[in-house]
Design a protein that fits this description.
mainly alpha; single chain; 65 residues
Amino acid sequence: MANIINFNKAGKKIAKIKQEKQADENRVKFGQKKSTKRVIKKEKKALEDHLDAHKISDKDDKDTP
């Protein structure tokens, strides 16, 4: 015999799972102190600058014969 499903309860259960997932994402995104965000932003900027400094530009290749 098949299981009986109450679509109203199933829909609410799915909605609750989605809300919990969104809440977890928001905790990560907005749950940090301002000073922590600044430190992370500075570290990210420093890493990007470091990588940009080591990139080989196309202009250098065009100058050589």
